[in-house]
Amino acid sequence: MRKIEKRAFVCLVLVGAMLLGLGIYVVQYLRFGGKWASFAANRHLYNSQGQLAVGRILDRDGDLLSWPDESGQRCYYNSETVRKATLHAVGDAQGKIGTGALVAFADLLSGYNPITGAYSLTGTGNDLYLTLDARLNYIAYEALGGKKGAVGVYNYETGEILCMVSAPSYDPLNPPVVQDGDERYDGVYLNRFLSGTFVPGSIFKTITLTAAIEKLPDLFERSFTCTGSTQVGDGTITCPHAHGEMDIYGAFANSCNGVFGQLAAELGEETLKSYVEQAGLTSRYSVNGVRSAAGSFALTGLSENELGWAGVGQGSDLVNPCAMMVWMGAIAGGGKAAVPRLILKTENGMGLPASLELTHHTGRLIDSTSAATLAQMMANNVKETYGAGRFPNMDICAKSGTGEVGGGKAPNAWFAGFLRNEDAPYAFIVLVEEGGSGADAAGNVAAKVLDALVNGY
C-alpha cells in the first residue's frame, strides 16, 4: 500500500511539474511568440539574404515606404531623401536600425497571430500603417541641412507621431560601409529621437520654472538684475550679455542663466530632483514596445554653484528628445499627455484589422494651474524673443536652448514647445547638434516643419 502511495505521489508531482511547465510555456508563447516566429533565421518569412520578405510599410496617407517585390527583395520609396528621412522609423534590410519597423514590428508585418502563427491565406503578410507623414519627415530632414540631430512632432491628444527624424542617416538602397572615425556616419544606427540623450541647455529651465512657480510664493513679485555674471555659491554663473532689470517673465524670455541659477540654488537639490522625476525626464516611454532612453540628472551631492548650473540645463544634465517632447505635450494638455505611438493601424491581406491600437496617457506630470501659467510664459517667449511672425496661423508656446558640450565644439541647439490651436494639438522637439543658437538654428527647423504641418507649405 505504501509503495502505491509513493508512486501516486511521484505521479502527482510529475503531473504538477508538467502542468507548471506547460503554463510557463503558454505564457511565454503569448508574450514572445511573435518574436520567435519573426526571428531572422525563419526562411518562411526571410529571404536567403536575411531580408523580411513579407509585409508592407505605409505612412499615414497610404504612401508605400517599403515592400517586398515578387522575389522577396526589399523595395523602398522612390525618393532618396524620403528614404533617408524615414530610415530610423522604417528600418533597413540588414536589420541594423533596431527602432525601424522591419525589426521592431516584424511580427506584425509577418501576419503572425497566436492561433495560426505566421501562416496566412495570401502569404504576403500584413500592411503596417505608421503614424508618420512622409512629406513632413522629408521637410524636417532637409531643414536639418546635413547637421546631426533629431526632430519630433506628435499629437499630444492621440499620441500619433507625425514626424520622427534622426540624422545622420543613409539610403537603405545604398547602405554605406561605415568605418570607425568617419564623422559623416557618427552614430548613424542610433535613433537620436528615441535612443539618444543630450545636454538640454535652457529648455530645462521649464522644469526649474515649474518648481519655482509652485514653491516660491513671491516669485511673480520679485525683481531681478543681471549684469552678465551672477555669484551663486562659490562661483559665478554667466550669461552671454547683461540683461539688466526684469521680472520672472523677462528672465524666462531672456533665458537668463543668472536668475535661473539662483532659483535652482534656492529651491535645493531635493526639490529639483523631484520635479525632474515628476516631469518624466528620467522615465522610459514604450513607443509600441520600442523603449526610449531615460534622461539622467545627477542632482545630489552638488555644490550650490553646481546645482545652479544644473538648474539652467548644464553640468551633467542629459535629456532624451522624446521625453522632452512628451513633457511639452503635458504642459499643453493641462498636466497629462498621450504616450507617443508609431503604429496607426495594421491590416491583413484581406483588408481587415490585424491589431488593436489604443491611446495611452501619462500620469500627471505637472499641476494643471502651473501648466497654464507656464504655457502663457512660453507664449510670451515667442512674442518677445523668437518672433511670432515666424509661425503664421499658430498659437505657439516655445522655449529655446543652447546646450554647451565642451571640447571646443559649438553648443547643441534646441527648440521645444507646442501649439494651442484647437485643430492642431501638436508638441514638438528639435535638436541640432553643434547648431549654436537654439532660437535660430533649431527654431528655423521647427518653423519650416510646423509651417508645412499647419499651413500645408
From TrEMBL:
Any one GO BP annotation for this protein: cell wall organization
GO cellular component: plasma membrane
InterPro entries xrefs: Beta-lactam/transpept, Beta-lactam/transpept-like, PCN-bd_Tpept
Endpoints of the signal sequence: none
Domain of life of the source: Bacteria
Molecular function, one GO term: peptidoglycan L,D-transpeptidase activity
The Penicillin-binding protein transpeptidase domain, residue ranges: 149-450
Family matches, as PANTHER family: PENICILLIN-BINDING PROTEIN 4B, PEPTIDOGLYCAN D,D-TRANSPEPTIDASE
Protein name: Penicillin-binding protein
